[in-house]
């Protein structure tokens, strides 16, 4: 009896939740209307590392299931099978959550937080916005006839998309909220959002870039001690993982010491000779932007803070590698990547050019 009780207690302590996802938007909308709840549209895709982590992490947490059950009818939307919805809600990254009312108002549009407590905070913060939007006299009926849709005005570039006509189901004119905007729950504590005005306020620090001429295969170790005055050995890039497999295959594969290249003052190791040759033919594509400096801290706080592989990701626009100092910076970038990618790439290109005059 005692043994059975211990087993039962252990099973209870590690219990996981199973979210009751809906896959049919029309029936989900009917449920939301009947139960006076908001709709959570969760967009995911195949071969999405962060989607898989969310499924195995926050979506198994009882607190997330409880928050959804209380105020939401959750709908899971496969991006590849629903491209019209991806286009309609301007989904640019995965996973993304869009919260709408039954009247068609978009009240939240953000890349899904990975931590369970932050996911719950996102859900809870949207509830009062949803109540206000539903109470608005300007709200349109979500079940409007397709023959007479009422389209929302064109949203501003920085705003989340207002609901558009969806086969006669969604029609509304709500102004969206800024995707990724700072909230009271945000812990990053950045002074300014990146914009042209903030860039001109004070000069940015200069990221260190060694000359491009230093890109060369790493010679085999001789076992001889270093001579006095010999330059310091380069640091290990990407913690020794192969940059080519990360970009081309979305896999973290440890590099081998016999396939090494010194590039921009760092030693890159590769999984194979072919990967090394691929890198040498086009190093820019496989080099982390700003040489692994946290671009969010760089632009927002004007500080050079090294990023970590643990918080590394590829941006969805250029497929370039970015590293961040912590999860808060990484998530902020993922929400607002369009604010940083081009600017960071320009800064890096300039720094490399300055380090290699005449090239």
Model description:
- This protein has a 4-stranded mixed β-sheet with strand order 2-1-3-4, sandwiched between helices.
- The protein has 2 domains: 12-184, Glutaredoxin (3-Layer(aba) Sandwich); 196-219 and 232-355, no CATH class.
- It has helices at 2-13, 25-35, 49-56, 62-71, 83-88, 116-135, 196-201, 243-249, 273-281, 283-286, 295-300, 327-335, 337-355; strands at 38-44, 72-78, 96-100, 106-111, 216-217, 235-236, 256-263, 266-270, 308-314, 321-324.
- Strand 9 (308-314) and strand 10 form a beta hairpin.
- The chain is elongated, with a radius of gyration of 24 Å.
- The chain has 359 residues and is α+β, with helices and mostly antiparallel strands.
- Pfam families: Thioredox_DsbH.
- Residues 16-90 form the Spermatogenesis-associated protein 20-like TRX domain.
């Amino acid at each position: 009896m005692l043994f059975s009780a211990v087993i039962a207690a252990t099973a209870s302590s590690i219990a996981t939740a199973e979210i009751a996802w809906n896959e049919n938007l029309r029936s989900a909308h009917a449920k939301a209307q009947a139960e006076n709840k908001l709709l959570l549209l969760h967009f995911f895709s195949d071969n999405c590392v962060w989607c898989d982590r969310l499924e195995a992490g926050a979506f198994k947490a009882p607190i997330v299931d409880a928050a959804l059950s209380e105020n939401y009818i959750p709908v899971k939307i496969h991006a590849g099978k629903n491209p019209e919805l991806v286009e309609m809600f301007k989904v640019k990254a995965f996973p993304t959550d869009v919260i709408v009312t039954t009247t068609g108002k978009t009240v939240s549009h953000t890349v899904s937080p990975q931590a369970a407590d932050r996911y719950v905070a996102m859900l809870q913060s949207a509830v009062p916005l949803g109540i206000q939007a539903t109470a608005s006299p300007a709200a349109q009926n979500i079940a409007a006839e397709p023959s007479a849709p009422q389209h929302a005005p064109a949203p501003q570039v920085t705003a989340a998309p207002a609901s558009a006509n969806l086969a006669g189901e969604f029609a509304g004119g709500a102004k969206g909220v800024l995707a990724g905007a700072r909230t009271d729950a945000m812990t990053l504590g950045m002074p300014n959002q990146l914009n042209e005005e903030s860039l001109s306020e004070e000069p940015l620090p200069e990221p260190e870039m060694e000359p491009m001429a230093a890109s060369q295969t790493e010679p085999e170790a001789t076992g001889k001690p270093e001579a006095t005055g010999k330059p310091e050995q380069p640091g290990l890039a990407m913690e020794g993982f192969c940059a080519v497999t990360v970009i081309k295959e979305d896999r973290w594969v440890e590099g081998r010491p016999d396939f090494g290249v010194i590039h921009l003052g760092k030693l890159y190791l590769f999984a194979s000779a072919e990967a090394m040759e691929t890198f040498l033919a086009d190093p820019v594509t496989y080099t982390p932007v700003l040489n692994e400096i946290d671009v969010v801290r760089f632009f927002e706080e004007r500080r050079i803070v090294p990023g970590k592989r643990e918080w590394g990701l590829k941006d969805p626009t250029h497929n370039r590698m970015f590293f961040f100092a912590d999860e808060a910076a990484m998530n902020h970038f993922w929400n607002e990547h369009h604010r940083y990618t081009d600017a960071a790439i320009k800064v890096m290109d300039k720094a490399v050019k300055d380090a290699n005059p005449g090239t």
